[in-house]
Amino acid sequence: MRLRLKDRVHHSNEEGTLCRPTHYSDINPQPWKLQRRALLTGFVILGAGALIGGNRVMATVEQNTLKRRGVGLRALDQERASPGFTLFVPHFVQNRTVYLIDLEGNVVHTWEMPYPPGMSGYLTERGTLFYNGRTSEENFLSRFPFKGGVVLEADWNGKVLWEVRHPDHHHHGILLRNGNVLLHCMGEVPHDIARRVSGGMVEGNMQSGAYAPRPDADADKMYSDYLAEVTRTGQTVWEWQTWEHLDPVMDGIAEVQAPRTLWAHGNSVQELPDGDILASYRPTSTVIRISRKTGQILWKLGPPTVAGQHAPTLLANGNILIFDNGVHRLDDAMPYSRVIEINPATNQIVWKYQDKPAWNFFSPRMGMAQRLPNGNTLITESSFGRFFEVTSQGEIVWEYVNPFFGKPFFGGPPSSESNWVFRALRYSAEQIARARGSG
For residues 387 and 88, is the Cβ–Cβ distance under 8 A? Predict the structure, then answer.
């Protein structure tokens, strides 16, 4: 086994901050005593500053916690990591770039998009890029970081082949096999249903700044998800509304501190081989399978097995892989994230990954898990821009932290910087060769 670790140094650019890798082998080796002396000297300088030209100059300490901990490639076990390339989109205001990196953490390709992320992209079966973008028009979704507004398909060179806009689109949309798109959308819940929805809190001044303040006009409104199938010309041909199929009490807001402004707030959708839809709703902690023929809910998983989950994905063995965020667990006082594999016939967990101790791995929002060809699992710890690959035994064999920082859509003062990534996805060399041919 060959495990490689790398450190990082920092420099800035106009699109945020990029931290460039420095290998251990680039640093001149010193005897331990000299290293220790240099280390102690560094502590003295950090504590007391230094005299340069008679003036005291204080040493600079990186104030962004994630940058200070180190970014870029953090670990690589070449023999056990699944070969391929990883695609991701940093989620911040200034970004328009989709990145593709190799296992060494080198950027091998980028796509430049006309919109900031709303919230991610992926490669289609024919190798084109399908991208969810955030549009600039103002509506009720504008105060949320998950606003969308447009989906598009682009070739290898970033040329937009077509796009579809929808004012209610948020989070996630996919290209269906029939050529239409399926979008998570948000609509207002009828008042007689909204008043019966259980759980949640009245939205006030959220100190985290995760959402912009609620306008007075929305004070008595509740929004919930609906799925919309839309043609490339913008015509809606199918809709499925959560408030017509979920029970306001049994499927109420499970997250204790989630605002009642958002009921069944969707974050992921997948088209299954038979045309049915697998969808995820965070505040209700619910994953459901929807029949495209009847609209009925054929299968459901809820709390306490999952808590604010994301990205349920059907596996080849018939099980479902889920990123279980665990913000407000109903069966544990400690919040922590994990990845679980569920047998839908029994709703039992048949495999899971969680850190040791459990709270070392936690993404309060977003997240992704992808089962790789060699049986490993690629995990996106979204809130901290961290992607890592684990074996079936839970051993980490690859780790990378997004080095691209910028102003988050919301959260903190104007000087805040984030490296959020909604999801990272691994592609084989063959898939990337097909993508190259799309341009």
Answer: yes
* pTM over the 0.70 mark: yes
pLDDT single digits (tens) 149-161: 999 999 999 999 9
Which tokens go with 156? 């290898």
pLDDT value at position 411?
A: 73
Please tell me whether residue 315 adopts helix, strand or coil conformation.
coil
Domain 3-30+62-437 class? mainly beta
Q: Which residues pair with 153 in a beta bridge?
A: 130, 162
Q: What angle do CA 298, 246, 206 make, to 5 degrees?
A: 130
Let me know: does 320 contact 299? Beta carbons within 8 Å: no
Residue 242 token pair: 């959560």
pLDDT tens-digit profile of 369-389?
A: 999 999 999 999 999 999 999
CA distances (Å), 80 to each of 345, 377, 426, 437, in order? 32, 12, 15, 29
Place of tokens 């569920």: 342
Query: What letter does residue 156 receive in the DSSP assignment?
Result: T
Q: How far apart are CA 379 and CA 321, in angstroms?
A: 11
d(CA 198, CA 263): 9
> Taking Cα atoms as reference points, which of 319, 328, 321 lies closest to residue 282?
328
Q: Report, as an integer, the average pLDDT of 314-331.
A: 95
What is the rounded average pLDDT of the residues 244-263? 92
Select from 261, 267, 258 the least CA-distant residue to 288. 267
What lies within 8 Å, CB to CB, of 363 at 6+ separation is 323, 325, 337, 380, 381, 382, 383, 384
With b for 16 or more beta-carbon neighbours within 10 A and e for fewer, the 244-260 pattern comes to eebebeebbbbbeebbb
Give the domain ranges of the chain.
3-30+62-437, 31-61
